[in-house]
Amino acid sequence: MTTTIGLIAPGEMGAAVAAAVTDPRARVVWASHGRSDDTRRRASGAGIEDVGDLADLVTASDVMLSICPPHAAAEVAEEVAAHGFRGCYVDANAVSPDTARSIDATVARGGAAYVDGGIVGGPPRQPGTTRLYLAGDDAIGIAALFADGPLEAVALDGGVPAASALKMAYAGWTKGSAALLLSIRALAAAEGVEADLLAEWTRSLPDLAGRSDRAATSGGRKGWRWVGEMDEIAASLDAAGLPGGFHEAAAEVYRRLSPLRDATDDTTATRAIEALLHPEEH
Ligand SMILES: NC(=O)c1ccc[n+]([C@@H]2O[C@H](COP(=O)([O-])OP(=O)(O)OC[C@H]3O[C@@H](n4cnc5c(N)ncnc54)[C@H](OP(=O)(O)O)[C@@H]3O)[C@@H](O)[C@H]2O)c1
Fold first, then answer.
1. CATH of 165-281, one of 1.10.1040.10, 1.10.1740.110, 3.90.226.10, 3.40.390.10
2. Which residue's alpha carbon is at the smallest distance from atom 18 of ligand 1?
3. CB 40 within 8 A of CB 9
4. At the N or C end, where does the chain have fewer CB atoms within 10 A?
């Protein structure tokens, strides 16, 4: 029997995850209504069949896979539930444990099962680069859709929201520390000592100059999407009784970098620092 997977949406990650499905009885479909030309191009490039709008997607799908910007995750779940989805809903977005629990409750009200997901690594094209962590009663069944392919699907022992919690902890360090590094370099620039800081880093912390350059490039390209992710991490820390302020500040760093998303070339550290120090000019 065929398992139809409804994908929301074929973004950079979603299209690659769709291509990583290895179960020969599975097919992936999506709904192009309301989506951008970029997303349509990616979907047709990945050979993902377009069924029309969200109502058609709900009707066609046994499994719904949500891979969209974190700030849209809860709204997407509401819309899918409102259309009467009763299959297995997998949310693989970077959301807090509380948001994951709330999405679980939303889709359960509509009669669907829920699997909590979290992706670590870039779009999976070859084995060993990317993990899809899964938690919930159907986690093993969802993991089987990707068996022996480029995406390593890992069913966690903890129930919902173990996968989201793991993703928050992981990204809290990677993207949080990148935002801190950029802020620190911008502080040195504001005080006229950036060259001196880079020289000191070369002597005592030799990886930091390169890491801050890379943080500028990735923050320029994806910072707009990381604002929501940092807010979710701050909320996760708050809910655990820990200070969430680190990641509230990281969200502000990425908010200031957001206007750089449309740049045609890579964001340099100099340009990122300019955007951080003078947000009113961007
Ligand atoms: N890219 C990575 O390296 C990476 C790594 C780990 C985890 N992830 C996770 O993957 C998720 C998506 O990331 P991405 O890189 O694929 O982002 P992306 O390339 O920006 O794609 C986002 C997709 O979601 C669609 N979308 C936006 N708002 C929507 C809404 N309200 N309803 C339905 N669809 C909507 C977009 O369509 P339009 O084009 O029409 O806006 C686009 O197709 C995020 O939760 C992220 O945390 C990504």
1. 1.10.1040.10
2. 11
3. no
4. N
